[in-house]
Design a protein that fits this description.
The complex is a heterodimer of chains A (170) and B (505). Chain A has 170 residues and is an all-alpha fold. Chain A is built from 5 helices and no strands. Chain A has helices at residues 9-32, 47-73, 90-110, 112-127, 135-156. Chain A is flat, with a radius of gyration of 24 Å. Chain B has one domain (2-500). Classes of the chains: A mainly alpha (170), B mainly alpha (505).
Chain lengths: 170, 505
């Protein structure tokens, strides 16, 4: 089975959207029974979410059925070879997301300044084309930007940001 | 009234007050351009600063920031497809396509001018009609607010793109996400998935930052490595004169501008309906009443005119109940109410009698602030456009860092930064599956409102549903909801039949 063909979002996007809505309906539906019913008010707190979940679940199923019907009606045609520059780099998307997760995951421990400097440096290296990668330039920009953002929010706007390893230094 | 305005003008006609107005507007614009920093947060961050000033200057600083930030948010919406504030979400829909079509200057210019028109119109209206209009809105109860929210929700169908079904499903998805946390009325915890951090619900800011900013970074990542040169949008600043659009083009926008400004003024008056909702409503209204609705989203001035005039017009509207009744119209005015309170002032009818100079000083300062906003942004536009010349692989990580600060700053907790990541993934999926974001946002914002007012109304009527229809304003809006949905369905059906006939011919 060719898995790559199922990554064709133009063709399967609509079906996946229906499946996503259904998945959320199920996830919320599982939690639904945990809602405590009180006697305050004419209708209780589970009423509205219940109406929404039933509506969303029904629409998801209708949408999935319509999408499958549409897919069966229009057979898949062999795609012409896409140009190299038109191909999407999903590996880069994944690495971008991983860097973002690592950033917010280490924000408290490393502190805003260090975590942000590493994040900006790593993300710029990750996103830049090979010929444009300049680690020293990126490093300097990352340090200046993170210190400037921290100083602005901390000292101008009095917003407390996590200091992490630099606690007591700044 | 003229005498009172003269007293107000006299109170602020000094170098310190003028400097405070300019400072407030400029800081508002700068913070408004940072995606993730909302108008509310901008004002909230400067509350302690205003406390160090005398009451009039302190409130003027905050009001100037309110005006500056609401308008400043149009810049990243148009240049980067990232709304500077939630009140500029709709500006992305046509503003960014205009940038991609090489019309960034035109989009910024028209956005700026209509923002100015909207703000000034709202200030004039606020001065003229504040007391009678606020008195009228005071008569509204939960029945009326529920009906208005339902009418607003029905408008999301026009934001749904090709499929009404997917639009409604996306709106419902937004509504179920908004039900996470404490229920209104009885504060019962719902859908916390075993995490105490979810017990307080999801804030609008991290959700929006994720859906727009992170999703945009991920979309960019698809091709960023492959390009030897970043595909910077073509921005012609040299051949552009004035604001970048012609008098004829502006003339064509007058009906749209009038309608959207009117919508912002009218709905801005009603407590609970913020500029975030209003800009989306204005966009859908402009689309549904346009002769060429299919062009919306492809980069036309109409979309920018609708959203930017309405969100700016909502400023004056939201200020009316705040000033005359002490009721905040939205989150931003709720923070402003806090600004009044830290100076020992209680907004309300008595304030007009006891602090005439202060009240009318604020009114006059808002009119001056709208001119400052126009001038500051007109001369700043060319500077802001330089943002696009910075390579995106450097700009986007820096912007994301600021977005994380914004998300963190809402509740001072790391959890909200993870919310950004979660909704970034959802937002990216929306882009890939071609799902409309508008209905999701509308559902997310209006969901709690619908539920709260519905439950309150039923408590008030002791379970009787009749007042929803028998109360004139409520009945009018509910009838409007039904009529709108019927008309929309018929027009969609006719359009589809027409397209089918054309295809078969």
């Amino acid at each position: 089975m060719n898995i790559r063909k199922f990554a064709d979002m133009d063709r399967y996007g609509s079906l996946y959207a229906g499946l996503m809505f259904l998945a959320f309906t199920i996830a919320f539906g599982v939690q639904f029974s945990d809602i405590r019913i009180t006697t305050i008010g004419v209708i209780h707190s589970a009423f509205f979410p219940g109406v929404i979940l039933i509506s969303l679940g029904s629409l998801s199923l209708i949408h999935i059925a319509l999408s499958i019907w549409e897919l069966m009606k229009t057979p898949r045609t062999e795609q012409t070879e896409t140009k190299a520059e038109d191909k999407k780099d999903y590996l880069c998307v994944l690495s971008t997301l991983i860097i973002c997760i690592l950033y917010v995951g280490t924000l408290e421990r490393l502190g805003f300044v260090i975590a942000s400097a590493i994040f900006i440096f790593a993300q710029a290296l990750n996103l830049a084309p090979k010929t444009e990668r300049k680690p020293i330039k990126f490093g300097i920009i990352a340090i200046i930007a993170s210190v400037a953002i921290y100083s602005f929010f901390r000292y101008v706007l009095n917003l407390m940001l996590p200091m992490g390893l630099l606690t007591g230094i700044f | 009234m003229i005498e009172n305005l003269a007293i107000g003008l006299n109170a602020i006609l000094n170098p310190t007050s003028m400097f405070v107005i300019v400072l407030g507007v400029v800081i508002g614009i700068v913070l408004g351009t940072i995606p993730g920093i909302s108008v509310t947060m901008t004002i909230a961050l400067f509350l302690p600063v205003s406390f160090t000033m005398d009451p009039l200057n302190g409130i003027m600083l905050l009001v100037g920031m309110y005006i500056g930030a609401t308008s400043g948010g149009l810049i990243p919406s148009i240049l980067l497809n990232m709304p500077g504030t939630p009140a500029n979400v709709g500006t992305c829909f046509d503003g960014y396509p205009m940038t991609k079509n090489g019309q960034a200057m035109k989009a910024l210019g028209i956005g700026l001018v209509v923002s100015f028109v909207g703000t000034l119109a709202s200030v004039i209206m606020m001065i003229l009609l504040s007391v009678p209009l606020a008195r009228f809105a005071l008569g509204f109860g939960p029945f009326e607010y529920f009906a208005i929210a339902m009418f607003s929700l029905s408008l999301l169908c026009s934001l749904a793109g090709k499929s009404i079904l997917i639009g409604i499903a996306t709106g419902l998805f937004g509504m179920i996400i908004s039900s996470v946390g404490m229920a209104p009325i009885d504060a019962v915890t719902r859908f916390n998935f075993g995490t105490w951090q979810l017990s307080g619900g999801l804030d609008v800011l991290p959700v929006l930052v994720g859906m727009f900013a992170l999703a945009e970074i991920m979309v960019n990542a698809e091709k960023s490595r492959k390009l030897s040169k970043e595909p910077a949008a073509v921005i012609d600043t040299k051949s552009v004169k004035g604001f970048g659009f012609t008098g004829q083009e502006f003339k064509q926008q007058i009906p749209n501008l009038t309608r959207s400004t009117g919508l912002g003024l009218g709905l801005g008056l009603l407590p609970g309906i913020s500029a975030t909702t209003i800009n989306l409503l204005a966009y859908s209204l402009a689309k549904s009443s346009s002769k060429y609705p299919e062009k919306f989203g492809t980069g036309i001035m109409d979309g920018v005119v609708a959203t930017e005039s309405s969100n700016s017009a909502a400023i004056g509207g939201a200020m009316v109940p705040l000033m005359t009744l002490g009721i905040p119209g939205d989150m931003a005015t709720a923070i402003l109410l806090g600004g009044f309170m830290i100076h020992g002032l209680q907004p309300g009818p008595l304030l007009f009698v006891q602090e005439t100079a202060l009240v009318y000083g604020i009114f006059v300062s808002m009119a001056i602030a709208s001119f400052v906003m126009l001038i500051a942004q007109f001369y700043g536009i060319r500077l802001f456009i330089k943002v696009l010349k910075v390579p995106r692989y450097i700009l986007l990580p820096i912007i994301f860092t600021m977005c994380v600060v914004g998300a963190f700053g809402v509740n001072h907790r790391i959890f909200d930064t993870f919310v950004v990541i979660f909704f970034g993934i959802i937002g990216y999926f929306f882009v890939k599956a071609k799902l409309p974001v508008g209905p999701f946002i509308m559902g997310f914002i209006l969901g709690p409102m619908v539920e709260t007012f519905f439950r309150r109304a039923l408590m008030l009527s002791q379970g009787d549903y009749a007042p929803f229809l028998t109360r004139p304003v409520s009945g009018l809006f509910l009838a409007g909801t039904v009529i709108y949905l019927v008309v929309l369905t018929i027009s969609r059906y006719r359009a589809r039949a027409k397209a089918k006939a054309a295809a078969s011919a």
